[in-house]
Amino acid sequence: MTMGSNVSLAALSENVGSAIVSLGWSSPTGEGDADVSVLLLDAKGKVRSDADFYFYNNPVAADGSVQLLGKEPTADGSEDRISFDLTAVPADVERIVVAASRYEQARFAELDDLKVTLADAGGESLLRFVIDDPGPVSAIIFGELYRRAEDWKFRAVGQGYESGLAGLATDFGVDIEDDEADDETESGTAVAEEPAAVAVSDAPPQTTLEAVPAPRPPADEEAAPKKRTARPRTAKKKVTLPRAPVKSLAENESWKSARLFPVSVLKSDREREMRATSVLLSVMAQVPEFGRRLTAAFGAPAGRMETFTEVSLPHGDTPRRPDGVIRVERAGKLWTALVETKTNGNALKADQVQAYMDIAARRGYEAVITLSNDVALEGSPLVDVKIDRRRKHQVALWHLSWAEVAHQAQMLIRHEGVGNAAHAWLLQELLHYLQHDNSGCHGFQNMGSAWVPVRNGIDDETLCQGDPRALEVVESWERLIRQVCLRLGGELGQKVLPAQRARRGTDPGARRARLADQLCLEGRLQAELRVEGAPGLLTVNADLRTAKLRTSVEIPAPEQGYPLTWAKRLLRRLAEAPADLHVETLVEGETGGPRGTLERLRPEPADLLPKDSATRITGFRLSLFKSMGSGRGSAESGFIRSVDDAVHRFYTSVVIHLDAPASGRAAAAAAAKERATV
User: Fold this and answer.
1) pLDDT one-digit tens code per residue, 376-421
2) Helices (H), 412-558
3) How far apart are CA 289 and CA 616, in angstroms?
4) Of the candidates 65, 56, 58, which has an alpha carbon nearest to the alpha carbon of residue 84?
């Protein structure tokens, strides 16, 4: 699509009762990001109330019409997805604005590949709109859905706001809290900013878009300008469980708490699959927030959900029994998905999944969902199935990892909250079941059969470029890193995503082949994790030649102040970090500067400074080293466990003590304070 163009969704697909809108971008540095937001507007082009504004603090509509699904990593950046149940949108809502905003002083001109795509309930991509030159704006309206008679249409907008999220939201009638502005006023540095719309493309001046309102003129030219505000009002508080468990009344530690979902009687893989499927589906049906979160990404509408196990469905001479069925009813219409489950690392069977796809197509079901410990990779399906495109009714094939299920449960009960205490308790019981050793639902837990031969080939230098076993190890490494992100993000309640620094348009398969060649030449596996609020990317480096794991983060040098002050302040921040932490000074134009362990540098911070005072310091690198597990599995001595433990230890003992990236004003204030104490 081009800027200003529109299209009827009904003309593109017959399956548009619900839709997934995805906003994507990439960053040359791998660090750039943005937050999505959605506004429901009435006939006047304003929100009916502040509840019609959906963003990071208010991600889900009570009626299920809107749900922010969060970020998904892509080959060269990230993609933020939003689920819309268009059949549930209130009748007095005429337009749905889809936007994104950057924070602090960041601008969209610093990002590449800005685009919006829309897919129907079956996962079929229907349209794509690319914003070529966003300009120096901090918020952009990517597009909007709007009603015409009984149909929904999509318009490609691409209009930016210099005033950011607050200006955009205010323009559509949202009341914004002004805590930050009040703080600035008290300090004598209040900023007067009026929301201003800025054209993003090179469209002619006479081109107008009815979807985008003009900036509001002030009611009185003599009136004081509006205070700049930063944070919309938060959603109603929900129930979360305390991090510290309540003290037990047990007489001694041998007493075990009674569990809703016991695991002690499970003896076979079949029993584990049946129990895990029943436990998960029953909790999904009883906890609407959880069930909706898992199914919205697959195009399911918001509505009454019922779940079933061991259903018999005709298929040729022999009936088939999928592990489960999910049905959602909304306004007399049914959405149905068949569920195929595997536990304990058992692989999905292509013929089994193919049979369920055929059954679903014949019976008019919408989806087949596979669930296993494996993690799906972009552009690399876990199961190859044939889809008959000649059929009018298309069935979508989706995959869930048990690690993703546990992550979503943990996010709800530990950080975001659910509707009541009973729902929180149910999710806690589910999480306890999934994390138990006997459940078989542990997520990715095997580096594969190629792991040992590749490791041996690196040791004796016989591994050659182009060896397919190296590619298998790279794919397993990518799955492991995705799971590490899920576990760390679930614990922190923050977004943790793999950061890909691929060139624009790079195919995922070509990128993995390049990494496999690098593994053969250098004997190293490397990944970068983007943790929300961290001062830089967290790097994980597995050196198969030395059997060492290195976790590290690079901190940019402050823009103001003195190098010795920077070094002293950094060491004070790391007062509780491990003594064996390596600190390295990064200098301009050289491969590395002074370095040493924290234990040695604490009494002598000046040892971090280059001998030549004219040398410019660009930052500091903090690193922890750990012995690498050798086994391919997830046992205590295995590679998977060692990587997970290394990332967890580095973040909780090092990164958590560091300052988050500061805005320009905050950085200047901090530097002034540091100078005053020197």
Assistant:
1) 887 777 888 887 666 666 888 999 999 999 999 999 998 888 888 9
2) 421-435, 451-459, 468-492, 508-522
3) 52
4) 65
Q: How confident is the model at residue 237 (pLDDT cuts 50, 70, 90)?
A: low
- Beta-bridge partner residues of 620: 555, 585
- Beta partners for residue 20, in sequence order: 83, 119
Q: What token pair was written down for 456? A: 């041996």
Helix, strand, coil share (%) of the chain residues, nearest 5: 30, 25, 45
CA–CA distances in Å: residue 165 to residues 101, 170, 509: 6, 8, 36
Residue 495: which pLDDT band, with cuts at 50, 70 and 90? confident
**In 636-662, which positions are buried (b, 16+ CB within 10 angstroms) versus exposed (e)?**
eebbbbbbbebbeebbeebbeebbebb
Are residues 153 and 159 in contact, defined by beta-carbon separation less than 8 angstroms?
no
Are the CB atoms for 25 and 111 separated by under 8 Å? yes
Asked which of 143-152, 171-180, 576-585 is least confident by mean pLDDT, the reply is 171-180
Q: What is the CA radius of gyration of the chain?
A: 27
303's CB contacts (< 8 A; 6+ apart) are 64, 88, 328, 329, 330, 331, 335
Q: Residue type for 283, please?
A: V
